[in-house]
Amino acid sequence: MDISDISSGVGVLDKAAVILGALASGPATLAGLVASTGLARPTAHRLALALERHRLVTRDLQGRFVLGPRLGELSAAAGEDCLLAAAGPVLTSLRNATGESAQLYRRQGEMRVCVAAAERTSGLRDIVPVGSTLPMKVGSAAQVLLAWEEPERFYEGLQGARFTATALSGVRRRGWAQSIGEREPGMASVSAPVRDSSHRVVAAVTVTGPIQRLTRHPGARLAKAAVDAADRLTEAVSHP
């Protein structure tokens, strides 16, 4: 990448951007950075060390420069903003299509938080108000948020849960989860995963309603709508 191609008039910023752009292609030694950026060796070294201090650059086991964890954190924050911006219209559409309340959950430690919702305009309302903190041991959203976790966290999450590893295997196979009276007697729900650009599950879209309407097989009626809504949010997060 040539600096002249991205010149902003702020030289040090342009040079730092060139280094980050070069590392996007993979790990590089200092000599490799000099060759790929055209920067003088002392300049490349000084800027790489400064970027490392800010965690924008780090080193691999061979001591080569690689992109740092701060970039992932910033990307996740941007993705969350895109997720919440897109959530309102998607959840409203899901509510209108199903006639049931719709929520969006994110995992926060050992709990899950409702970060957006579209409630029914009549009948039972405010089933799960925005900001509600619920356990990760019950409910279809908890199943979705746990099903694709790393093994250690996966098995820790199963301790004391109302669902089993076998049930979560079915969630991964189908691509959605359902619960009947798990969190609250008389209520049922269906959830589907929202993924980021790395295919990591970052949220769960949920449709909630009374068993009387959803029946004891809510997935048969609501799974497709929930998955479609989750896919729309995945698109918004993956391609902001």
UniProtKB/TrEMBL annotation:
<keyword id="KW-0238">DNA-binding</keyword>
<dbReference type="GO" id="GO:0003700">
    <property type="term" value="F:DNA-binding transcription factor activity"/>
</dbReference>
<protein>
    <submittedName>
        <fullName>IclR family transcriptional regulator</fullName>
    </submittedName>
</protein>
<dbReference type="InterPro" id="IPR014757">
    <property type="entry name" value="Tscrpt_reg_IclR_C"/>
</dbReference>
<dbReference type="GO" id="GO:0045892">
    <property type="term" value="P:negative regulation of DNA-templated transcription"/>
</dbReference>
<dbReference type="InterPro" id="IPR050707">
    <property type="entry name" value="HTH_MetabolicPath_Reg"/>
</dbReference>
<dbReference type="InterPro" id="IPR036390">
    <property type="entry name" value="WH_DNA-bd_sf"/>
</dbReference>
<dbReference type="InterPro" id="IPR029016">
    <property type="entry name" value="GAF-like_dom_sf"/>
</dbReference>
<dbReference type="Pfam" id="PF09339">
    <property type="entry name" value="HTH_IclR"/>
</dbReference>
<feature type="domain" description="IclR-ED">
    <location>
        <begin position="70"/>
        <end position="239"/>
    </location>
</feature>
<keyword id="KW-0804">Transcription</keyword>
<dbReference type="GO" id="GO:0003677">
    <property type="term" value="F:DNA binding"/>
</dbReference>
<feature type="domain" description="HTH iclR-type">
    <location>
        <begin position="10"/>
        <end position="69"/>
    </location>
</feature>
<keyword id="KW-0805">Transcription regulation</keyword>
<dbReference type="Pfam" id="PF01614">
    <property type="entry name" value="IclR_C"/>
</dbReference>
<dbReference type="InterPro" id="IPR005471">
    <property type="entry name" value="Tscrpt_reg_IclR_N"/>
</dbReference>
<dbReference type="InterPro" id="IPR036388">
    <property type="entry name" value="WH-like_DNA-bd_sf"/>
</dbReference>
